[in-house]
Amino acid sequence: MNGRPDRAAPAAGRPAKAALAAWIGSALEYYDFFIYGTAAALVFGKIFFPSSSPAAGTLLALSTFGVGYVTRPLGALLLGHLGDRFGRKRVLIATLLLMGASTVLVGCLPSYASLGVASPVLLVALRLLQGLSAGGEQASANSMSLEHAPENRRAYYTSFTLSGTQAGQIVATAVFLPVAALPQDALLSWGWRVPFWLSAVMVAVGYFIRRSVEETPVFREEVAAGEVVRLPLAVLLRDHWADVLRVIVAALIASVSTIFTVYALSYAVNTVGLSKTPMLWVGVLANVAAVISIPLWAKLSDRKGRKKIFVAGSLGCAVLIFGYLGAIAAGSYVWIFVLGIGMFGIVYTATSAIWPSFYGEMFPARVRLSGTAIGTQIGFAISGFLPSVAAAVAGDGRGAWLGVAIFTAGLCVVNAIAVATGRETYRVPTAQLGLKHTPAPQGNEVGARP
């Protein structure tokens, strides 16, 4: 493998095209995923669980958000296998279509009052399909971008997957701003459905864009050399299980995102009694800041390394989560905006800008998609249940935020340890990524390639 020509030197223009396809596709797909989280926090308790108390209805609605993370690992297993076996592009298109169909159907569901218990059952089923799709989305987009990228700019190009995710969250939250301002009767009858129906148009655009991107040079050479493995999972668990475990633990940093996006919104509106509109605007502005800061952190990582920036972001979140949740408890909108944007829009992005390259660089091409997908999605599955766990443990009291903050900070510290004890990979040539006992080149050997 070391003797082959460098498979990570695509023709001019391909890295940008692959990054654009990853950015737009992730924005469109995660628009679907995040509108569900917003609806779960604001309205699903009343629509699908009206017979419960307000607190219990909110808890049940947040649990359906977490249910989507159950099938993420299954999606990672299935779609990771397909991506390493048959190519990254096919999985990118399949995940987009599955997410779009599931989301539109959520918007068509009758309420509990109309259909009875079948209504929340169907809601959970569609949420499971969303999770199945999301299980392969980011890993496929990351692998596509990484394998098209020049060796000295892998973090920069792969970071567009995550900035696309943030853009999808911006659009999802922004769409809910006018919807949340509707009169209560209109919101609960038809208003909440509009963001889900709009998904059909957005997925059509994403499908057109992703069809135009080429398969990666790395995968094409694997096919030409007859080195595509029949059972990527077997090779992954035999030779790379330690790296999968490291990714699982490191991926717990996503707990910051789920707490910020779902738990904090529900706590602010349903427990503290703050207005929905400014809390939604915190999410919009934090994600705008994230879209700007993600490529900047990634460029810095290509120059200075992955680990030190990742760890700094994790530990920074461990501190700022106390300030943000405390500001919500105090009802201080000024500090809510300052700390929310600072934590999620700037500090947290030091991790989300880097993990697409850092995790992908742990594995060789033949198991890269499987390794990244399985590792991240198991970690994300744990993180996805945190809003409902936090709501159950914290209770209804206004001061219950402190326990949630302590728990989230502890996960950030665990993440920092997992990253700090991993291999530094930013100077390893693409063809040697994931190979054992391969020293990283010294100096600027990798960075010399334009």
Automatic annotation (TrEMBL):
Cell compartment(s), UniProt: Cell membrane
CDD domains (UniProt xref): MFS_ShiA_like (cd17369)
Pfam families: MFS_1 (PF07690)
Membrane-spanning residues: 30-49, 55-79, 91-113, 190-209, 244-266, 278-297, 309-327, 333-355, 367-394, 400-420
Major place of residence: membrane
Keywords recorded for this protein, A-Z: Cell membrane, Membrane, Transmembrane, Transmembrane helix, Transport
Residue span(s) of domain Major facilitator superfamily (MFS) profile: 18-427
Its membrane topology: Multi-pass membrane protein
InterPro entries xrefs: MFS, MFS_dom, MFS_trans_sf
Protein name per its UniProtKB record: MFS transporter
